[in-house]
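Regression test attached.
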Amino acid sequence: MAFDWQPVWLTIKLASTTTLVLLIVGTPIAWWLARTHAWYKQALSAVVALPLVLPPTVLGFYLLIMLAPDGPVGRLTETLGIGSLAFTFEGLVFASVLYSLPFVVQPLQNAFEALGPRPAEVAATLRASPWDRFATVVIPLARSGFLTAAVLSFAHTVGEFGVVLMIGGSIPGETRVLSVAIYEQVETLEYGQAHLLAAGMLAFSFLVLMTLYLVNGRITRSHQP
Amino acid sequence: MSGIEVNLKHRLGDFDLEVDFTAPAQGVTALFGPSGSGKTSVLRAVAGLERTTQGVVRVNGETWQDESRFLPVHRRPIGYVFQEASLFPHLSVRENLQYGMRRVSEAQRQIPFHDVVELFGISALLPRSTARLSGGERQRVAIARALLTSPRLLLMDEPLSALDHAAKQTILPYLERLHDEFAIPSLYVSHDPNEVARLADHMVVLDGGRVTAQGEAAPLLTRLDMPLSGYDDASALLVGNVTSHDHSYHLTWITLQGNRIAVPREDLPVGRHARVQIQARDVSLSLRAHTDTSILNILPVRVIDTRDISPTQVLVRLELEDGQTLLSRITRRSAMGMGIREGMQLYAQVKSVALLT
């Protein structure tokens, strides 16, 4: 029996898209949280951290209601002519972004807080505009935070199951990612395939985390005077 | 209008800043005061790093901020030196130096890279990583980096305070040279009277968020009602010209309108402007001009006023023939014994003189 690569590619595509979107969305949120003294900072931090404690089914349930054709997001997407996002790849990306948000925001926020305002101030006095100093000073100095955020969001998306099942179902090539595929193979007693995928996931996860720790260890060491 | 006009009002919790001063368009203006007096806040506001409730900053007629406009930091032609060198750790020394320079259009670069590198003695450090520099080297690179943007105003926030005494002594000559080589006006924050005496031409004294005095540095340093004269190392600053060198005894003579002072020989051209610093504790007073003494520098002076600085000691402020002031710290017993009073003519015997530039 031929090995079905489709769930593997779909998972990689989902995790990469989610990571990219998250870095774009999460960076300004983390920057704001690291710099602000606003009274609602704590409230926003709590909202960002919610996916850490909520059962994925709860998140999936609300998302399903939101994305449904008569839900708030669904109505918007219907008017825009995109149709409902539930049970689509785009819907999965939307859900994954929310689900993995804390894994991007927290390492970035920590990195920005550790950096403090000084390097950006120095760059400003050396004529660097806000974007310029972010690109040439903040990003390189917070690179271990960015790396951690990217790896965690990728790995966490690869590992998600509950949310995907709730709002994506299992449409081959569209929403049938690795974790769902394994679940179904076990359901249908195809242990051979399940073993392959599960062992692959295990090896992949270990390698990712190992690389992260190694690289971060090196960055931290090279920063010590 | 030329000069640096600063007028700021700011409330920060229970700290109230209300500062109004004008600094000359040339030379070093020291912002002097105890910690918590608002010096750094003023400097940060001038740089645009801090927004004040109300603020006007004008530099040589150019408005950086007033009620209707606020030039962001990166558009102000400033050079800022922070207390800690704050070099970028991900860049080499050369890249640090070039960071600001590259962001200034070539037409506006007036200070050549090699001149600055030479002046600060950092050419050997260029390829190095910043992590391997000593504290003094880091601060030299930071000052050079600020200079390379060809600033129209140099802002320095206690650039020596994070350094140990030895490193401080190695940087001071660079700062003095900076003053001579580049005609960039600077605001220099400090709480060290010794540093102020060595570097400043002009002074703004701050206390509790208010300006308590401003003007030329030399007379302010010796004013007995100012906190400066109360320090253990209270000193006076005299300005004169190099008039001759004595080769046989290895001395340089500096003339202050009629009087002359000998200092250990320095290779300075005759006619050059020179500043000397004289510590109050190195000046003793005598009723007659002694010739039978080992002291070389004896200057006729007139007593302006006196102040008791401790139960044993008195600080006497003296006027030289050319109007410059000198401080002398003597015991209260001597002052009583000699009958020192205002207007009295005396001779100041100066035991040691430091030539600054």
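Expected vs. actual: identical. The mean pLDDT of chain B is 88.
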